[in-house]
Specification:
single chain, mainly alpha
Amino acid sequence: MKQYNHTRSQFARKRSTIHTRYDLNAATSFGGAAGLIDFVLGTGIDREFWVHGLRKGRNTQFHMDDIALTVIFGSLLGQERIFHFEDIEQDPLLKLKLDVPKLPDTTLLYKDLKRLGSDAGIKAIRSAHRQILRSLLPKGQGIVVD
């Protein structure tokens, strides 16, 4: 199995052009979600989970930004519980968009979600929320949530 040992300086997710074919080669049940996935990636939300308190070892296959995006995309695509993520583990669209050979398995998701419950994880989640709002608002405008 190929190790995907990426760092922020050499790895950046990018929008992929997806060509539609009407055959069963690399079929996905989430074809209509490509635009939504590109929007989420365009916000830069994954960078918010690349903080010191959440970093994993150098040789790890999935970093916390991969885990966070997997959970976000799975939730957006209707996977209500972590054990439902087994259904999307080999999905070709998500593998292409996340640039991984397969998605993290449920055991790893459960383990790493505990890390997101730490102080650094909560801080990263709050920062990610702010990043999404910043990407949606025009420059120089603030927002008040009542």
